[in-house]
Amino acid sequence: MTVLSVNLNKVALIRNSRDTANPSPTEFALMAIAAGAGGITVHPRPDQRHIRASDCPMIGTSIDVEFNIEGNPFAPAAPSPRVGIDPYPGFMSLVESVRPEQVTLVPDGDDQLTSDHGFDLTADASRLAPIIHQLKDWGCRVSLFMDPIPEQMATAAEIGADRIELYTETYARAHESGAFGETLARFQAAAHAATAAGLGINAGHDLNLDNLPDFDIPDLLEVSIGHALTVDALKYGFGNAIARYLDVLNGA
After folding, report:
1. Mind telling me the catalytic residues?
2. Tens digits of residue pLDDT in 163-219
3. What sign does the CA torsion over 203, 209, 211, 215 have?
4. Which residues are bridge partners to 203 per DSSP?
5. Per-residue pLDDT tens digits for 84-103
6. Are 71 and 89 spatial neighbours (Cβ–Cβ below 8 Å)?
7. Which residues is 103 bridged to in the sheet?
8. What is the CA 158 to chain-centroid distance, rounded?
9. DSSP character string of 187-217
10. How far apart are CA 249 and CA 1, in angstroms?
């Protein structure tokens, strides 16, 4: 069965719109687990626009399912964005202190609104290899955020990655148009190549209740969903939204 990992960034974004501790990402992590989620995902960025570095240890010690921290491994320490918020310690320092079960490496920059591309391993493999080795020494499973390029999957395995996370925005946009077969075929080809290389397969970005039922990917281990699930929670309630995603993943 494919695991649903609930991304809490948008919960934290709502909190950050006021000088308050509510809504609490840790509380919503526990609510997600109670509703059946099999994992919790956060993506802390240096500007701490949503999930903050200080949220991560609290979530990690409070939950009993897999904790997945996403981010750019090359992101350095950064000063506090405002009074009352701890400085960002740098991605690798944060992971070292929290030791999540999974780390998903994403090549996002500070100027990006959200993640918008995967790693190009023809350029990034050599500098990612020692980082992956370090993360695995800390006991973390390592996933690389990747575009659906079958030719790069073997390289991901060669540099030590355990999984890849397919960046699914292109699929979501094609699904909106109604003509998504060719795009889906590219994702399926990348998934087959990943499996052949011995990699596990995750997926995420813009997956929702409309397009997820058609995302026919073999051996899909995990989907990470945050923005769409938060929107659906406004319609159906948080627990009910999670139940709907679980129904889709279970083929109901």
Report:
1. 43, 70, 205
2. 999 999 999 999 999 999 999 999 999 999 999 999 999 999 999 999 999 999 999
3. positive
4. 166, 223
5. 888 999 999 999 999 999 99
6. no
7. 69, 142
8. 22
9. HHHHHHHHHHTT-EEEEESS--TTTGGG---
10. 7
Q: Provide the CB-side half-sphere exposure for 3 (13 A, CA).
A: 18
Cβ-contact 23, 11 below 8 angstroms: yes
Which residues partner with 6 through β-bridges? 40, 225
Q: Which CATH number fits domain 3-249: 2.60.120.10, 3.40.50.720, 3.20.20.70, 3.30.70.890?
A: 3.20.20.70
* Winning range, highest mean pLDDT, from 39-43, 110-114, 116-120: 39-43
Beta bridge partners of 69: 42, 103
**What are 141-163's pLDDT values in tens digits?**
999 999 999 999 999 999 999 99
251 conformational bin, left if phi > 0, alpha if psi -120 to 50, beta if neither: left
- Residue 39 is classified by DSSP as E
Provide the pLDDT for residue 207.
98
Whole-number Å distance between alpha carbons of 52 and 109: 16
Secondary structure of residue 153 in the 3-state scheme? helix
Would you list the DSSP string of 111-152? T-SS------HHHHHHHHHHHHHHHHHTT-EEEEEE-S-GGG
- Provide the residue count of the chain: 252
Measure the CA–CA gap between 105 and 164, rounded to whole angstroms: 9
